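Justification of resources, computational component.

The compute hours requested in this renewal are based largely on the per-chain cost of generating structure records like the one below. Each record pairs the submitted sequence with a full structure-token output. That output is archived, and it is also reused by downstream analysis tasks.
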Amino acid sequence: MRRLKPFLRIGLFLLLIVSPAGWAMAEDAGLRITEMAVTTKIVRGNPIDSVRRISSASVKALYCFTRINFADDEETTVTHIWYRDNVKVGEYELPVKGKRWRTFSRKTIEKGWSGDWRVEALDSEGNLLKTVTFRMN
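The structure output for this chain reads:
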């Protein structure tokens, strides 16, 4: 058991050193969400509101708007995953074709779909970039 302790210490030390470097590399990839909101409507490429609580009887669809800055010249994708009470109810892969890009996904809403909702934005590697939450009555 005493022989194991030095290896654990070394392992923890390396983990502390390596982890921030891994985060820096992901940040250096250059994909950054500057705005993300669930909205009732998109007008002229922008959300008109930001939903925090809404009635399922008052809307037929909701949109998840995402504004992205991307340092790379290559095209990539962002995926929106919609959840209702921790159950996936929609997944949409959206292209990112420029350094400053806006995109959105649209989720049809049925009456009675109450619960706690969230939309997660993932990069092309499946890493979580941002989450927005709202409540539907």
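Confidence is low (pLDDT under 50) at residues 10-28. The first strand starts at residue 31 and ends at 39.
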